[in-house]
Amino acid sequence: MPAEIVKGKTVTIQFDGAKCIHSRGCVLGYPNVYVPNVKGEWIHPDAASAEEVMHTALNCPSGAIRVSYNDGSETSDKPPVVNTVRVRENGPLAIEAELSVRGEKQATPRATLCRCGQSKNKPWCDGAHAAAGFTATGEPATREFTALEVRNGPVNVQPSPNGPLLVSGNLEIVSGTGRTTDKVTKVALCRCGHSKNKPYCDGSHKAAGFTAD
Question: Residue 1 has what pLDDT?
Answer without folding.
Answer: 67
